[in-house]
Design a protein that fits this description.
The complex is a heterodimer of chains A (about 110) and B (about 110).
Chain A (H helix, E strand, L loop, with lengths): L2 E5 L2 E5 L4 E8 L4 E8 L6 E6 L5 E3 L5 E5 L4 E6 L8 E9 L7 E2 L3 E6 L1
Parallel strand pairs in A: 2-11
Antiparallel strand pairs in A: 1-3, 3-8, 4-5, 4-9, 6-7, 7-8, 9-10, 9-11
Chain B lengths: L4 E3 L2 E4 L5 E6 L6 E7 L5 E8 L2 E5 L7 E4 L6 E5 L8 E8 L6 E3 L3 E5 L1
The chains are: A mainly beta (about 110), B mainly beta (about 110).
């Protein structure tokens, strides 16, 4: 069975500082990996996804993530945090088949300090 | 860009009542899903649907739940007799032929009172 572990249910960073949100996955088959962002009372917005092409994936809003098979990790980073980045972030995994369900992590709430 | 459309955006219902949540997936997608997010918790898989039948369902998807695609465009989730603990955001998703090509709808917030 696949699973995702997000380290830290809450992360606080200062505006302008590096954002690092950690995600480790477990999968017995090659995975697809995703990061979604959710603003309060809104839906899920895809930030980026890894689908077995380049291991460094660039997404929207300046975010990127690197797939590291040896570490079973897919951490999300952004060089400089903006106030507008405050939201809930979900890491997710699916099997590398186009029809497989997505399994979500518990989420990390990102707080941006002025 | 094509969207997955969910209606209504918010529904309030009394405990014990039936509700139907509606979704219009992207037209050329073949795989469809429902997910649930209880307030403050993670997004959980409910059911996947392909070729007019359920392909997989989770433990949450008990006999109170059903899905169908009645007219080739809409994809519905029915909860037969709602409970307070069914209060959640329900997301519909469909998948394209592209790797990882999921598109989520904006969700329906169901409140059971």
């Amino acid at each position: 069975a696949q699973s995702v572990t997000q380290l830290g249910s809450h992360v606080s960073v200062s505006e302008g500082a590096l954002v690092l949100l950690r995600c480790n996955y477990s999968s017995s088959v090659p995975p697809y990996l995703f990061w979604y962002v959710q603003y309060p009372n809104q839906g899920l917005q895809l930030l980026l996804k890894y689908t077995s092409a380049a291991t460094l994936v660039k997404g929207i809003n300046g975010f990127e993530a690197e797939f590291k098979k040896s570490e079973t990790s897919f951490h999300l980073t952004k060089p400089s945090a903006h106030m507008s980045d405050a939201a809930e972030y979900f890491c997710a995994v699916s099997e590398a088949n186009r029809d497989d369900k997505i399994i979500f992590g518990k989420g990390t709430r990102l707080h941006i300090l002025p | 860009e094509p969207e997955v459309t969910q209606t209504p955006s918010h529904q309030v219902t009394q405990m014990g009542q039936e509700v139907i949540l509606r979704c219009v997936p992207i037209s050329n997608h073949l795989y469809f899903y429902w997910y649930r997010q209880i307030l403050g918790q993670k997004v959980e898989f409910l059911v996947s649907f392909y070729n007019n039948e359920i392909s997989e369902k989770s433990e949450i998807f008990d006999d109170q739940f059903s899905v169908e695609r009645p007219d080739g465009s809409n994809f519905t989730l029915k909860i037969r007799s709602t409970k307070l603990e069914d209060s959640a955001m329900y997301f519909c998703a469909s998948v394209s032929s592209q790797p990882g090509g999921y598109t989520f709808g904006s969700g329906t917030r169901l409140t059971v009172v």
